[in-house]
Each structure stands twice: as C-alpha cells, then as structure tokens.
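Supplementary Note 3. Input sequence used for the single-chain structure prediction.
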Amino acid sequence: MEITIDFPGGKRVDAHYGPYVIPTDQSPMGGGEGSAPEPFTLFLSSIGTCAGIYVLGFCQQRDIPTDGIRIIQRIHPNPMSGMIAKIDLEIQVPLDFPEKYRPSLIRSAELCTVKKHLENPPEFEITTRAVETV
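The predicted structure, written as discrete structure tokens, is reproduced below.
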C-alpha cells in the first residue's frame, strides 16, 4: 500500500490513494484557509468512522434499521501533556432499539481496525531520498 502526500499550496497537504484525494488544511488560526479538516482531526475522525463501519455492518447483517443510530466521539486530553488520554465512543440508539443487541453493538465497534492499530502501534521509520522532480 502506498499513499502519496503532496503540497498543493498554502497550508494544504493532500493525500492521494488510488483514485481518491484526501485534502487537509490548517484552520485560519493556524495560518490556513480552513478549506478541509486539519490532519489531526481527520485522524481522530477515522476512529469513530471505523467503529461506525462495524456498527453499520452489524445492523445490516440483521436487517436492523440504522435510522437514529449515531456515534458520539469524545476526546479527553491529559491536562499536563495536552496529549489524548482517553477517547469515548457512545453509540446512541433509538428508544425502540432492541436491548438484546446493545452489547453486540459495543463488541462490533471494538473490532475497529484503527482502534486495534492504536492499541498495538506500528514502528515508524522516516527517511529522505533525492529524486528528479516531475
């Protein structure tokens, strides 16, 4: 898997993967135009959307309507370091959602691949290489 990152101007940084472009930008306060999510916000949203894919799959496999289901993600920073100390995912369901499926929704969300990678982080290696410009 390869993702190409480029710099289209200003404070924007785009990721290219296959036919997709994933734009990011800094907020106006950070010197950008606010034209796209900031990279860290995109990273954080990948946690909730990944959990959402598993919740959606669970419901679809059982023909459970997803109307009214949503996930609220809350970030709790460590006041000393400013780093994230805790992430809460609250799966909100309608009042008529079958009680017997609530624990299964939680187990489904816990299957999130992004969450699993955070729990067992990869090793990072950052290098440079000179190439001819295109």
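Residues 11 and 65 are 41 Å apart (CA to CA). The helical segments are 39-61, 102-109, 113-119.
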